[in-house]
Amino acid sequence: MKPELMKRMVKGPDGLEFEVEPLRDYYCEAPPTVMPAAYGKIVEDLFNWARSESIWILGFGTGCGAIEMRPLMTPRFDAYRYGVQWRPTPRQANLFIISGYLSTKTLKRAIRAYEQMQNPKYVIGLGSCTINGGMYWDSYNTIKRLDDYLPVDLYIAGCMPRPEALLAGFMDLKKLIRAGNGEGANQYAENFAWYKENQKRVIHDWDMPDYNW
Amino acid sequence: MMDMFPPDRSQYPAKKADGTLDIDLTSGKYLKLWQGPNHPGITGNMSVELTVCGDEVVEGKTHVGYLHRGFEKLMERRTFIQVFPIVCRVCVPEPDFNEYCYAACVEELAGIEVPEMAQWIRTLILEMGRINSYMMYLGGQAGALGQGVIGQWTTYARDLMLDRFEELTGARIYHMFILPGGVRDTLPEGFQQRMEETLREIESTLKDVYDVMFCNAVFKARTVGMGVIDPSWLEPYGVTGPNARAASVAKDVRKDAPYLVYDQLDFEPVIGHDSDIYTRADVRRRDIWVSVDLIRQILAKMPKDGAVMAPIPNVLHWQIPRGETYIRGECSRGEYGYYLVTDGSGYPRRINVRGPSYTHAMALLERMIVGINISDVAALMVSLHTYPPEIER
Amino acid sequence: MDFDWMKIPYAFLTVFIVVNYGFLMTALIQKIGARAGRRYGIPIWQNYIDMIKNYSLRSSITHGVMFYLGPVFRLSGGVGLLLFVPTIYGSYMFSNFSFAGDLILALYFVFFGTLGMALGAGESGHPHAAIGVSRGLSQVSMAELPFAMAVFSVALQYQTLSVTDIVAAQQGGMLHWTLFTNPIAVTAAMLSFLGSMMRPPFDVVIAPQEIPIGPPTEYHSSYLAVMQTNRAIFPVAKIVIYMNLFFGGATGWPELFLKVFLLYLFSAFVGVCFPRFRVEQSVRWFLVWAVPLGILSIMVV
Amino acid sequence: MAMKELYARLKALFPLGELTEQRKDLAFVTVPAEHLRATILHLRDKEGFTHLVLLTAVDWLEEGRFQLTYLLNNRQRACDIGLRVMIPRDAATMEGIHDIWPTAATYQRELREMFGIDFPGSPRIEEDFILEGWNDIPPYRRDFDTLKYAQENYSERPGRVTHDPETHMRLQLYPGSKP
After folding, report:
1. CATH number of A58-202
2. Going from the N-terminus, what domains does chain B have, and what CATH number goes with each?
3. Which residues, numbered 131 to 160 in chain A, qualify as contacts with chain D under a Cβ-Cβ cut-off of 8 Å?
4. Cβ–Cβ of A132/D139 closer than 8 Å?
5. Residue D27: helix, strand or coil by DSSP?
6. Structural domain contains residue D175
7. In what helix (H) or strand (E) does residue D74 lie, and over which residues does it extend?
8. Chain C residue at shortest CA distance from A32
9. pTM across the whole model
10. Tens of pLDDT along B266-302?
11. pLDDT in tens, C212-231
12. Residues of chain D neighbouring A108 (CB-CB closer than 8 A)
C-alpha cells in the first residue's frame, strides 16, 4: 500500500492537527444500488433511444485495441456520424471499451474508472483476449475472461478487430440499448459481492475502497 | 557521476543534505498529480506521477507495467515457429521490427541463408511501418498541443498506407509477414503504382502538415526551446534514434551498421541541431521524406522475381544449437533489438527485447520532466515518441 | 413607470428561440470544423440527443451545495445576459428588459457565469478542476479587460450606457456601425472575443491533453445537461451584445441569426487550425496586443 | 580481426574467460563478477564502448547459475561486445552500474523484480516496476510455471481445445493416416 494512502496525522495551515485516513475520507464507499427504470414505458423508450444515439466512450486505451480507435474517429471511419464521441473523464462517459487484454495492474484502474461512470453504463470487450485470453491464454499477468470482473454487454472478437467490426459492434450495442437490455450497471449492483470476490482474488494488493463513486 | 546532472531526483525519495525529505508532501506546498493511465495526454497506457509546485513540475516518476503480458516468459514456452506469431504483439504501432529482429536472430543461430528477394521485401515493409509510426507521432504531437486537425489528416494518410499493408500481408496492424527463413509472399500484381499513388497522397499531406503545423506561430511558441536534451546526456541515458539525431548526432543504425539491403540504398540520416521539441518533430517529418524516397528506390531496384523463402527444417522438430546473438535495427523511435539465447532444445532459452522507449520513457523522461510547466508534460512525453508496450513487454 | 408584465412571456419566447438556435448553430459549427479535418461530422440534431441522454441518466452524485449551484450560476449568467439586452432592435416583443444602464449589467453578466463555475468546480475537489479554474479565471479576466475598455470607448463615443441607444445610433447603413466609426475598439473587442470563446488558441482552460477537461471534470448527467444548455445560450447572448455594440444590432431574427453565425464562425475558423497557448503566454498575448488597442481606442474617442 | 585484438588487449589487463565470436562485429566474453566494473570502465573510457545496449539475465537452471549479459556498443567501430557474468543462482546479488550509466538503474529494477537478482544501492530498487502485488517467485525464473499459475489464478472460459501440433497437422494434411 502506498504511503500516501496510510492513516496519518496532518497539520493544517491553521496549525491544528487532525487525522486523515484517505481510504475513508477521500471516497464515499456506499455500495451501488439498483436504479429502477424511468416513469413510464414511453419515457423509458425515449430515454433508451437517446442513450443509444449518443454514446460517449471513455478515452482509456487499456490495450493494443486502442490503436484502431484512432482510425475510428478520423476521416476513413468517422464514428461521430453515429453519435459516438470521446470523453476524457469517466464521469461523463457511458461506454467503456476494454480494448484488449487486461493485465491485473490495469484491471484495478479499469474497475475504478468503471465505478466512477454513471448509471446506465455499458462495457464492450474488444478482441479475443478479453473473451478467453486469446494469444495470452497462458500468461501469468492477464485476466482470461472479462465478464468475471465487469458486466460486459458486447464482445467484438478478433486480434485485432478492424474498425468496420467496431462500427458493427456499435450498431449492435444500439440495438441492445433500444431493446432495454443495456442494464450492465444494475447487474453489477445486484451481483456486487460476486464481482468484488472475483476482483479481489486477482488483485492482490487491494489498496482502495470497495466501491468508489 | 549522478551528480553530474543536477537537479536529479532519481534517488527516491530525494533527501536534503541534512537527511530531511527534499519534497515534503505534508507541507501543503506540493500537489501530487497522476497523469495517466486514464488520461488523453499520455502516450499509450502508462502513467507519470507528477509532484507539482504551482505550475512547475518538481518531480516525475514514470510508472509502467499496465501492458505487461510476460512475453519473454511466453516465448520460452513456445517452439521457434510458435514464437513468430506473438512477437509482433510486443510493439503495436510498428510491429514489423519485432518480426524482422526475431527472424534474423533465428536465421543467424540456425545458419539459414535468406534469399535476396526476401531481403528487399523486408526492407520495404520496415520502411512502410516507419512511415505509419511517424504519421501517428505527428498527429499525437499536434494533438498534445490541441491542434486536432493534424491528427485527422495524418491518420487518414496512415490509413492509406495500412491499405497497402493489407494487400501485401492481409492484415492492417499485425502483419505476421516476416517469418524465419524469408517472407510469406511476393508483391501482388500492380503493387508498384498503387504504392506510388499512396506515396503521392502522403507527400501532399506532409506539405499541408508543414504549412499548418510547423509554420504555425503558436506551435513554435509552445515547442521551440522546450524540452532540450543536453548532448552530454545522450550516452549516459542511451538516447538513440531521432531523439539523438535531433541533438546533431548522426546515430542511425541504417548507416552505422547497415542491415538487410540498406547498403545498396542511397540516403542520408536526417540531422537536427537544437534538440528541442520542435527540432525532434521536424527531424521526424523530414525522416518521412527519406522513407518515401527509400520506398521508391526499393521498388525500382528490387529484383523482379526470385524465391522469397529459404528452406527451413520441419518446424515441429526444429532444434537450434546452443548460442546467443543480438540483432538490432533502426525503428522509428531508435535502436530496436532482440537478444536470443538458445540451448540446443526446441525452445528458445531466453529472448530479450530491447525497445528504445525503455531508456527514453524511464530514466530520460524522469530526468527531463523536472522543472517544466505542467502544460508541457504531454507535449514532452509525445516528443520522445515512446510506446509503453515495448518497455514492459 | 409601471412594469409591463407582458414582457415576461416574450422574454421566455426569446430564450426559447435562442436555445434552439444555439443548439443547431453549435452543431453546424462543429460540422464545419469536422470538414476541415475531412470528416462528415456529427448529425445536426446531436446536441438535442446528448442533452436528453444526460438528463436521462439515472444516477448522479454531488460534492456539496456549491457543486449544485455552479451550473445554475452559469445558466443564469447566460440567461441574464440575454434578458437584459435588446435582442431585436425596435421590436417590442424581443427587446426584453433592456433599460438605461444595461451596458454595465451586461459587462457583469459576461463574467458572472465564469465565477459561478469556478465556485462549483472548486468544490468538486478534483485537482484538474482546480487547475482549470485558476487558469480560467486568470485568462478570462485578462480577456475581459480589452472588452471592457472597448465598451467604455463605445459608451464615450455615443455618450450613453444604454445598449438600445447605441444600436439606435448605428442604424441607417453599414457605415454607421461602430465597426467603421470606431474600428480600434472593435478590433480590441474582437481579440478579447477570441479569448473568451474557449476555442484554440485560448482553450488551455479545458485542455483535454493536459487537465481533462478542466472545470467540468467532475460534472455529469443533469449538471452537465444544464451546462450544455448554457453552452448553447451563452455564446449567442454574448455575440448579441457584440452585435449590438459593434455591428449595428439586428432588426429581425434572420438578420440576427446571420450575424451571430458569422461572428461565431470567425472564432471557429481561428480555433480549427491553431494549437493552444500556455496560460501565461495567452495572458502576455492579451497584454501585448489587445490591451494597448483598448487604451488607444479610449484615447481616440 | 578487430575483436581478437580487443580481446588480447583486455586479456592483458583482466582475467577473462574464452571469447565467443558470434559475428565479425559481435563477440561475447565471460568476465568474473569482481572484475566487471573495471572492465566496463576500461571499455567505456579507453575503447570507446560508450553505449549500453542492454543488461539482461539468462537463467541456467540446470547449472544453478544466472548469466548477466552486459551488451556494450562502440558506434565508431560499429561493433558490440557482450560481457557475460556468471553469478550463483541462490542469493543472487550483483554490483550495480547505475553510476556509470544512469539508465542501467531501470534494467536493474527489472532484473530485481523479474529474476530476483539484487543490486544493492540501485535507485528505487525496492519499488514495484512492472508487477503489482506479486506473491510468487519471480516470474522470469525457469522454475516458475506460468501456465500453472494462470490456471490457478484466472478462471478459464470452457471450450478452449489444444491440439498436439504434430498429430493435428498430419490429420489436416493426410486425413485418416496412422502415426
Report:
1. 3.40.50.12280
2. 71-392 (1.10.645.10)
3. 131-133, 137-145, 148
4. no
5. strand
6. no
7. strand D65-74
8. C59
9. 0.88
10. 888 888 888 888 999 999 999 999 999 999 999 998 8
11. 777 777 787 788 888 888 88
12. 132
